[in-house]
Amino acid sequence: MLALLIGSADRNCCAQFLKNLVPDHLGVQYAGSIGWVSVGTGYDLFRSRIRTGLHYGYLPKDFGGELHILSASVYCQPLKIKVAKAFTIHPLDIGIKSAYHFGDQFYLNWPERFPRGYYWWKSALRLHLATESSVTRELKNAGSIKAVTGYIELNTNDLYLVSYVLNPTVLAITDIIKIGCGIRIHF
Amino acid sequence: MRRQCELQTEFLCWIFLLLLLTGCGSFEFSPNQVSDKDSPRDLNSKNLIKLFANPTDDTVTVVFVGDSQRWYDELDRFVEKVNTLDDVDLVLLAGDVSDFGLLQEFEWVTGRLGHLKKPYIGVVGNHDLIANGEKVFTRMFGPTDFSFVYDSVKFICHNTNSLEYSNRKVPDMTWLSRELSGTEDAAYIVTVSHVPPFSPLEFDRELAESYPLLLSRTPKMLLSLHGHVHQHLDFYPFEDGIRYMTSYAFNQNAFVLLKMVNGRVFKSIVGY
Question: Residue A85: which pLDDT band, with cuts at 50, 70 and 90?
Fold first, then answer.
């Protein structure tokens, strides 16, 4: 009897654990400095106050590549407004992204032929500040899909920020703001 | 009902604001992308067409400058100043157009240089080769090794950024020696490159002797022009009769104006 109980508890625990592992959302994004198109997934944490994501992006040669980019993001979702029965907007989520570029021309560690600190940044890794504004439509009869979100993302990166801070009178803030947009489905 | 209406108005306002915001920036695929729909192409050959359309007069007047990297404010004032000088034939930018080798930086620089009345020629610097920089540079400006003859002077522009390469020898000595010897249509030679041979770290140590030797054995050599060191030098470092000159960087708010007349070089420093 005891063994049976333990066994069933284990199964429950396992199922719960596996359920927790299933990502909370899947998405596809156009531009936004992480590829011409990128696909991603992630989790909603702390009662959806925090959203994490992992994206793989591809930029074909015809659009300025070829590039393969892996990026990770964390967004804080401080404000949501329910505007209609099934519609919620997130006016401004704030996040950071890091984007790793694959390729021999990009370095995470500069080769030994360069003296230490010769170039102070890592050419393979860009750090981005980003905002996201979105509209979410809740779905009632769509199986496991609970909601669909459309969003526009604005971002800038560490090296653009350095350029801007050193040239605030001649570069406009809009010069360093780059756009992306995408769709995300929530489970 | 009223509440619903207010929310919908708020919703529409918000959409409108968002559309307005998207008008402020641009869609970017990656900071490391090689090109976008607006990036210029083959600027060096386009500027050479402009240069050759200019009538020659036995005097070649060159604005010699380098290292525009990250100094956009200075770049604006530089363009303004150069545009007041009517007798300039061309502007030579001796490398480090960009700081991080990013397309956006190249566009910020060429967008400003595009306001120059006179043609400008870009030479590749070590910072222009970082990340995807070499692909950006070659698409936007053209090959990293090239030459042209204007009014009896042959300008040989080439890549001397040895430290950036592990898989091949830079500078390309075979190409350079061929260019230095094939000079039937020119009376004088000016070489232009970013890293000077007297920069011990960045210039290939194995070529540090043969490179100046090759120049010194070229009878028509007039000047060897470089950037990189961020200070203006004008001297004979190898005591072999070859005059080496380095440019001011843009943060120094000055450029070197060179007038070449029948093998003589008249130099002046212009502040901006």
Answer: confident
Q: Name the band, by pLDDT with cuts 50, 70 and 90, for residue A10.
A: low
Three-state DSSP class for residue A173: helix
Cβ-based contacts of A115 with chain B (< 8 Å): 201
Both structure tokens of A102:
């694959």
CATH number at residue A71: 2.40.160
In-domain check, residue A36: yes
Chain B, window 50-109: residues with a beta carbon less than 8 angstroms from a chain A beta carbon: 70-73, 76, 99-105, 108
Range with the poorest average pLDDT among A6-10, A161-165, B163-167: A6-10
Domains in chain B, please, with CATH? 40-271 (3.60.21.10)
Closest CB to B28 among A33, A105, A123: A33
Residue B8: pLDDT band with limits 50, 70, 90:
low
ipTM of this predicted structure: 0.89
Percent of chain A with pLDDT over 70: 91
> What burial letters (b/e) apply to B171-204, b meaning 16+ CB within 10 Å?
bbeeebeebbeebeebebbbbbbbbbbbbeebbb
Instruction: Quote the Cα angle for B213-B218-B223, to 5°.
Output: 90
Taking one residue from A and the other from B, the number of pairs with CB-CB distance under 8 angstroms is 122
In a domain, A12, yes or no: no
Contact at CB, B25 and A123, closer than 8 angstroms: no
B107 CB neighbours in chain A (<8 A) are none
Residue pair A6/B3 in contact by the 8 Å Cβ criterion = no
The reply to whether A136 falls in a domain is: yes
* Residues 6 or more apart whose Cβ sits within 8 Å of residue A53: A25, A27, A40, A41, A42, A72, A73, A74, A75
Residue A3 maps to a domain? no
* Burial B118-137, CB ≥16 within 10 A → b, else e: bbbbbbbbbbbbbbbbbbbb
Instruction: Please state which of the ranges A13-22, B65-74, B97-106 shows the lowest mean pLDDT.
Output: A13-22
SS3 state at A72: strand
Q: Please name the residues in contact with A97: beta carbons below 8 A apart, sequence gap of 6 or more.
A: A33, A34, A71, A72, A73, A127, A128, A130, A155
Tell me the sheet residues that pair with B268.
B257
Nearest CA among B147, B142, B241 for reference residue B185: B147
For chain A, how many structural domains are there in total?
1
